[in-house]
Design a protein that fits this description.
The structure is a homodimer. Chain A is α/β, with parallel strands linked by helices and about 350 residues long. Chain A contains twelve helices and twelve strands. Chains A and B meet through helix 8, helix 9 and helix 10 of A and helix 8, helix 9 and helix 10 of B.
């Protein structure tokens, strides 16, 4: 198992990527290849650990030297085409050439999507790859597909999102018969815009053939009850959904903390219940649920959260190893071979 | 000031509507007219208060007897056309005839929208009326327009939503220069689907002429920071947004309560901070922000939440009185007269 990690991607790189890799390597079998500027990485290693090179910390972590970086503000297609020696493009190339089993990056999301599609390539039969993060739900997570890869979708795309989510939830989360719902503004089949009404019909017709437990239309309020495993939607609505969850999560954290600290009396009184509050905040923090997978590309690609810290890189690397080991991508390939 | 209240509408009617009216009448000047079945209402009054009629409690509450009821499962257009003597249709009729100043109902949302449009009528120049609830944000509320009245929209509709929100926030919330944003999946003007891209252009072009402080595209994560006063979107996306907030709000409440009660030790420890937690839950509960207004109809109509209890009806009735008194509807009329 070889995990390729874009050492330069994300708001806290390369410190957080290095620390995350060092922490994760102790718990995973296999190697981590860091793509990035060797000098910068080793300088940081010296700063953090007082060692000359990262190999002195673990001989299972290596650096693949690159000279460029894709920035958050770069235009995705241009960046992927022009920055051939960037940590991201090189990561994708190593993955494609079989020099690694999975690629993890917290870099520019649009560039990641472009790279996944242009360099690694779509699975034959999958019209549109999708981004699939896990969000917090009651006592477990809920998968969102598509979270923003495809602004404009057709019903066939949504059916394929459901097929891929189904395989993924079965293989990685060991859910026997994942409950998959279509995000709508009511549960009746006449509800929604044209895309959703047509997608409903298609899903209803094809679900059985694909072994999908399609539970019909669901509303945002149903998504977090713990009874639904995947929410299927177009990338525009899905991205609004994702960012609304994120925004509300921040509001919750901020308001709760301030409520408790409103005056010293309350703060002192609140101290005993802080572990519970922390546990709660953790449940609500969707970042705890790790990175988002790119479903529908030829090899496993995981998008880490842009603001990932050491802990989250550690978690996302382990998740990526699990994703690669599960063979989900090959099963998705077979699923789509049947049809084509 | 005469407030017409649909006594039979909502999950907890008529008990919650009666109690809410009795509580609200003490604090408002004017009268409340309950539309609904007189026998059922007075029987409930006897049960709750031990009085023969509601007039014995307050001579400023009267009943306008109706014999039918629109159910939650009724098809909106049919219900409005066929149930002429329902508490909802009669409420709308009284409003239209000037026998009341504002109509409040927690009944079937689709029927309310149909009734508002068909019976009360659109304001001249407003192509599509919209539903506008207030949602929790940091230290204040944020208005969402449209929350579900119009599944399919054109750019002109979104511009008009912004115009109406602008008047409303100035008049009712006394916000000098409300910050109005367009809900999108990125802040750049090239982002989003065609509707949103075109709406962005139109809003940017026309905002100044209408005195709108258009702050451009916003994402769901920006909506709750307290820096935005209104989120403009189509009814499909808006309804997904609203219900996601609702669902996540419930998850927060449930998870937090259970985190604190996990074991008796924690529960006892948590007791001192309970007032803070309650204050927090209240901030997060979007129902605390009252009913949703119908913007763009000839007279003030307020949709109370379907699951409203006594407290929420009390609050929504007061909000409705405020809405009617503010003259917002007349100002919206003038705003649109200018253009037509």
């Amino acid at each position: 198992m070889k995990i390729i990690l874009d050492a330069m991607g994300g708001d806290n790189a390369p410190e957080a990527t290095i620390k995350g890799a060092v922490k994760a390597i102790k718990e995973i079998e296999g190697e981590i290849i860091l793509t990035g500027n060797e000098d910068i990485i080793n300088k940081k290693v010296k700063e953090i650990y007082g060692k000359e090179t990262i190999q002195e910390i673990s001989d299972r972590i290596t650096i693949y030297n690159t000279t460029e970086e894709i920035k958050m503000e770069d235009i995705p297609t241009q960046a992927i085409k022009n920055k051939k020696d960037s940590s991201m493009v090189v990561g994708f190339r190593l993955l494609k050439e079989g020099k690694g089993d999975v690629f993890v990056s917290a870099g520019n999301s649009g560039a990641l999507l472009t790279g996944a599609t242009l360099i690694v390539g779509r699975i034959k039969g999958v019209d549109r790859p999708a981004i699939a993060p896990m969000l917090p739900s009651y006592k477990k997570g809920v998968m969102l597909v598509d979270a923003g890869a495809n602004t404009n979708c057709k019903p066939i795309n949504l059916l394929q999102f459901a097929q891929m989510a189904n395989v993924y939830l079965k293989k990685i989360y060991h859910i026997k018969n994942p409950a998959i719902g279509l995000l709508n503004i009511g549960t009746e089949e006449t509800k929604g815009n044209e895309l959703i009404r047509e997608s409903y019909k298609l899903l209803k017709k094809e679900a059985e053939e694909h072994g999908i437990n399609f539970i019909g239309n669901i509303e945002g309020r149903d998504a977090f009850t713990g009874e639904i495993d995947a929410v299927i939607t177009d990338g525009f609505t899905g991205n609004v959904f994702l960012k609304t969850v994120e925004g509300l999560g921040r509001l919750v954290k901020r308001t709760l903390t301030e409520s408790l600290k409103k005056n010293i009396g309350t703060m002192l009184c609140a101290l005993p219940s802080m572990p519970s509050i922390k546990r709660f905040s953790k449940t609500m923090d969707y970042k705890e649920y790790g990175g988002a997978l790119f479903l529908g590309v030829q090899k496993p690609v995981v998008k880490a959260h842009g603001s990932s810290d050491e802990q989250l890189f550690y978690y996302t690397i382990k998740q990526a190893a699990n994703f690669a080991k599960s063979g989900t991508v090959d099963i998705i390939k077979k699923e789509f071979e049947k049809k084509t």
